Amino acid sequence: MKLHFTADWLRSHIEHDPDVDCDAGLPLRDAAPLERLMQERSRHQATAGQPSAASEHKTVVLFKLVHQLRRKDGLSIAQLAAKIRVDAAELEKVEKDPCYVPGPRTVHQLAEFIGVSARAVEQLTAASSAQNDNLTEAAHRFAASSDDLSKLSQAERRDLNDFVKVLASIDKKNG
Amino acid sequence: MKELVDRVFLLNRATGRFEDADLYHGLDSTNLAHIEGRWRPLFELRRREAKASLQTLAEVNAEDAHWEWGKKALAALNDPFLFDFFVLECGGSTQAILMTRKGGQDCFSRHPEHQRLPLIYVEFLATAPWNRPKLVAEPTYKGAGRALVGTAVSLSLEEEFGGRIGLHSLPGAEVFYRDAIGMTDLGADSEGVHKGLRYFELSSRDAATFLSVQH
User: Fold this and answer.
1) Angle of the A51-73 helix axis to the A88-96 helix axis, nearest 10
2) Do residues B197 and B177 touch, judged by C-beta distance below 8 A?
3) How many C-beta neighbours within 10 Å does residue B130 have?
4) Mutate to test the interface with B, among A12, A29, A140 (most CBs of B within 10 A)
5) Rounded to 5 degrees, what are φ and ψ at B143?
6) A174: distance to nearest CA of chain B, Å?
7) Measured between alpha carbons, how far is B207 from B212 in angstroms, rounded to an integer?
């Protein structure tokens, strides 16, 4: 992350700021709350790759992936369906129903549109039990990165591109 | 796990000189050990002294942490990547910690200039007890709040939130956020987890001013 202030700015303000307290939010008096937070964060990361916990995240990620790709290109569901030659109703289900598992042809067409292997896209559906740690971590980061804005922000585009790169790294010969 | 973001500065009040401070993204067991082994004993000492001299804990900025920490832990469990930690280390110790949230609850603007737009919410900004003017007679370092608010604004810009940040000031810090930082005081919450605390927001316009004005 890049800081948007300079050393001179910081020095001059520190010299002129009033000599007062500046604490905000939840009081932090000992390490116990932070330890709990860190433990739960680690536990979440550790269990994310297990099939029972991961399937929900995979479907959420597939939904987000399709949604973000549409936003990136400014396409409606009908337009994207026409472009990749799949049923618009099925594409709509992919976006709106986290438990929906698209058919093999839709997976293949989506993969071709994204430029990754069908196996990679298949791993984002609830039907898949295979998802490596790298993909799981990337999927979680991607799932947490987007917001419901009408136009993709630069950060969202970067997150989308990063995630597609991870997908693209999955062996295409198995697609 | 943590990684260095940049080197910044804190003013040592005793020497009148600036000292290098490392700003990290994330925190590790060393920071937790500092809080438990160095922050906590000083807080406890001052709390005992305050009680003996009939001062309230709020008067010395040493209130109890409340039960809402449990809720935050649950929220972090559900959305671990929405939360960011930043720590400031200087003089071999952890001088301040910032925890931010970039999505979900509390991350929508209340500011009349751009209501409902997304922002970075400061879950907490905590400085070491020896840096607090209300808590100790001769506080050590000055500038942690300025550096960490600048960090939160930078994160907001990186996330394309226009520099917008929001936070609930603890009693006694309102003057810092209102007068020094230039945030808008949107009043005290009448309910919820921050009931009674004043909510401050830095609008996109004020964020630009915050970063551009120099003495």
Assistant:
1) 120
2) no
3) 16
4) A29
5) 120, -5
6) 31
7) 9
CA A174/CA A112 separation, integer angstroms: 14
pLDDT digits over B23-60, tens only? 999 999 999 999 999 999 998 898 888 888 888 877 77
pLDDT digits (tens, 9 = 90+) for B156-197: 999 999 999 999 999 889 999 999 999 999 999 998 888 899
- Partner residue facing B146 (CB), from A14, A45, A144: A14
Map out the domains of chain B as residue ranges.
2-212
Q: Hey, are the CB atoms on B173 and A10 less than 8 Å from each other?
A: no
Ordered domains of chain A (ranges, CATH): 55-174 (1.10.260)
pLDDT tens-digit readout, A144-157 = 665 554 567 777 78
| B206 φ/ψ sector (left φ>0, alpha ψ -120 to 50, else beta) | alpha
Asked if the B2-212 domain carries CATH number 1.10.510.10, the reply is no
The beta-carbon neighbor of A28 closest among B97, B133, B179 is: B97
ipTM of the complex as predicted? 0.92
Contact of B126 with B97, CB cutoff 8 Å:
yes
